[in-house]
TrEMBL record:
The lineage of its organism: Eukaryota, Fungi, Dikarya, Ascomycota, Pezizomycotina. Residues 8-195, 326-375 form the FAD-binding domain. Belongs to the paxM FAD-dependent monooxygenase family. This is FAD-binding domain-containing protein. GO terms for molecular function: FAD binding; monooxygenase activity. Its cofactor is FAD. It comes from Apiospora kogelbergensis. Pathway: Secondary metabolite biosynthesis. Pfam families: FAD_binding_3.
C-alpha cells in the first residue's frame, strides 16, 4: 500500500520555516512542520529588518497590511562615535524607499493611477519584532495548515527510505515524507544528520560531528528590549561606531530594541557558549557608556545629552546574549531527500538586516521548483490510479537535480550578501584603520551611498517571486523587477 504520510517535513518553525509552510499551502503540497521550542509563536529573539525583497515575497501571502500595522518604517539613521559625538547621518533606508516606492499605484476598479511616495504601500524597509512577525504569519495560515505546526519536536535523526525520508524526534515520534526541508537555524539538526541519512558517513564528515561546524564567529551580540523612554520618538534609528563594538538601535510605538556587536579577540569555529547573567552584567558594565539616542533627560560622561546603554539597561524588558556566526555552507542538500534554507545554509551578521530576507528568497526559489515537480508527480499518480500522497511518485533524481539548481541560483547571491554584512559590521566597529577611515570619511558621503545603491538596485531587481501565486505587485518603483508577480487569470 502507498504511504499517506505528509509529502514534505519542515524542520524549524521560525520566520523562514513559516514561509515554507505558507508557500507549500499555496502550492497545494502537504506538509508537517516540526519546531523544537514549546510554542510556534513566542517572545524569542530580537527585532528583524524586513527589506523590499522579503516584503514582496510575503505580500503574495496577503500579509503585507498586517506586517505594516505591526512594524515601523525605517528612515534616516543617526550615527555617533562612542563618546556621543555625531559622525554624520546615513540615508540608506530613505534612498532604498525612494528607489522602490510605488511611483504609480493603480486604484482598484479604476483605469486611473495616482502618484504615491509614502510608506503605506509596503515599500519602506521596516523593523518588526520576531514575535510579531511570527504572529502575523501564524494568523494568516488556514486552520488546516496551522494544525500541521507541531511544537516540542526536537529532531534526533533522519533516515532515508526507498521512497522518502523518516524524521525521528527525541519524544519517540517520527514523521515520513518525500523529503525534509531544514529551516532550523545556524546549528541545524537537519544539516547535522543529513550526512548520515543513508547510513554512511559523508566523505567530508559534513554534519556528522558537532565540532565540524561550517560557520566562523567573529562577533558576539548582546541585545535588549526596553520601553520607549521619554524623548524617544517612534521610528528613531541610531548607530554608535567605534573600536571593537558597534550598536544598532530602533524605536517603535511602545518599545525600543538595541543590539551591541562586540568583536571577539580571536575568531572561532567552536560551538557557541551559553552566556550567564554574570556575563551579561559584565558586558553592560564594559559598554554601558555607548550612546543610543539623543535625549535631553540624560547626559553622558562627556556632558553630551544622550541615552546610554547602561541607562537603558535599568529599564530592560528582555535581553539576549549570543554569538554571531557567519558563512555559507558548501552543500545545501543530500541527494533528493534533504535540503537546507535560511540560516541552516548561510548565516549573516545582522548589520545589514539581510539574513531573514535572504532566507525567504531561498524559499521562493526552492518551492517554485518543488511546485513544478509535485504538480507533475500528482498528475502522473492520479492518471495511474495511485494515492495522491504517494511519496514514491516523486523521483529522487529529479529532486536532487532541483536542489542543485536551487543552490546554484542562490549561492553567489548569499555569498556576496554575507561578505557585505560582515564588512559592514567590521567597518562600524573600526576593525582596521582603513575600516575607520572608510566609516568616517567615505561611506557617509551621499554621493558614495547613492552610487552603491544604484549598483545594489540592479542586483536586487533580479530577485524572484513565487511564480505560481497570482496577485497584484504592490512593491513597485523606479527600478522595475525582472520577475513579475503573475496576474490573476481573467
Amino acid at each position: 500500500m502507498p504511504t499517506t504520510a505528509p509529502k514534505i517535513v519542515i524542520v524549524g518553525g521560525g520566520p523562514v520555516g513559516m514561509t515554507v509552510a505558507h508557500a507549500l499551502t499555496k502550492a497545494g503540497i502537504d506538509f508537517v512542520l516540526l519546531e523544537s521550542r514549546p510554542s510556534i509563536v513566542m517572545a524569542a529573539g530580537a527585532s528583524l529588518v524586513m527589506s523590499q525583497i522579503g516584503l514582496r515575497a510575503l505580500s503574495q501571502f496577503g500579509v503585507l497590511p498586517a506586517i505594516e500595522k505591526a512594524s515601523t518604517p525605517l528612515s534616516i539613521c543617526k550615527r555617533f562615535d562612542h563618546l556621543g559625538r555625531t559622525i554624520g547621518d546615513t540615508k540608506l533606508f530613505s534612498y532604498l524607499h525612494e528607489k522602490y516606492t510605488n511611483s504609480m499605484i493603480r486604484v482598484p476598479s479604476s483605469n486611473y493611477c495616482i502618484a504615491n511616495t509614502t510608506h503605506s504601500h509596503g515599500c519602506a524597509s521596516r523593523v518588526i519584532t520576531r514575535r510579531d512577525l511570527m504572529q502575523v504569519l501564524f494568523d494568516a495560515l488556514p486552520v488546516e495548515a496551522s494544525s500541521k505546526l507541531l511544537p516540542n519536536k526536537k529532531v534526533s535523526s533522519l533516515h532515508k527510505t526507498d521512497d522518502g525520508v523518516v524524521v525521528k524526534c527525541t519524544d519517540g515520534t517520527s514523521y515520513e515524507g518525500a523529503l525534509v526541508i531544514g529551516a532550523d537555524g545556524a546549528y541545524s539538526a537537519v544539516r547535522k544528520h543529513m550526512a548520515t541519512m543513508g547510513g554512511q558517513q559523508d566523505a567530508q564528515g559534513q554534519g556528522g560531528n558537532d565540532e565540524d561546524l561550517p560557520y566562523l564567529t567573529t562577533y558576539r551580540c548582546f541585545w535588549m528590549r526596553f520601553p520607549r523612554l521619554p524623548g524617544i520618538a517612534p521610528g528613531d534609528m541610531t548607530e554608535s561606531h567605534g573600536p571593537q563594538a558597534t550598536t544598532q538601535y530602533f524605536a517603535s510605538e511602545d518599545s525600543a530594541v538595541v543590539a551591541v556587536y562586540e568583536r571577539l579577540p580571536q575568531p572561532t569555529r567552536r560551538p557557541p557558549r551559553r552566556y550567564s547573567d554574570e556575563d551579561e552584567a559584565a558586558f553592560v558594565a564594559r559598554w554601558g557608556h555607548l550612546p543610543l539616542a539623543d535625549n535631553p533627560s540624560y547626559r553622558n560622561a562627556e556632558g553630551i545629552r544622550v541615552l546610554t546603554l547602561g541607562e537603558a539597561y535599568a529599564h530592560r524588558i528582555q535581553t539576549g546574549f549570543i554569538n554571531l556566526e557567519e558563512g555559507v555552507v558548501a552543500d545545501w542538500s543530500r541527494g533528493g531527500r534533504a535540503v537546507l534554507v535560511g540560516d541552516a545554509a548561510h548565516k549573516f551578521t545582522p548589520s545589514t538586516g539581510a539574513g531573514c530576507n535572504n532566507g525567504i528568497v531561498d524559499v521562493v526559489v526552492l518551492v517554485n521548483k518543488l511546485h513544478k515537480i509535485f504538480a507533475t508527480a500528482a498528475a502522473v499518480g492520479n492518471s495511474s490510479g495511485s494515492v495522491k500522497n504517494n511519496a514514491s511518485v516523486v523521483p529522487e533524481e529529479e529532486l536532487a537535480a532541483a536542489f542543485r539548481e536551487y543552490q546554484e541560483v542562490r549561492f553567489d547571491t548569499v555569498t556576496l550578501g554575507c561578505g557585505l554584512s560582515g564588512r559592514a559590521t567590521g567597518t562600524a566597529s573600526w576593525a582596521t584603520p582603513w575600516a575607520k577611515f572608510m566609516d568616517l570619511y567615505v561611506l557617509s558621503v551621499d554621493l558614495v551611498l547613492r552610487y552603491f545603491l544604484r549598483w545594489a538596485a540592479a542586483k536586487t531587481a533580479l530577485t524572484p517571486v513565487f511564480d505560481f501565486i497570482e496577485g497584484e505587485d504592490t512593491v513597485v518603483g523606479k527600478y522595475p523587477w525582472v520577475h513579475k508577480i503573475p496576474m490573476p487569470q481573467a
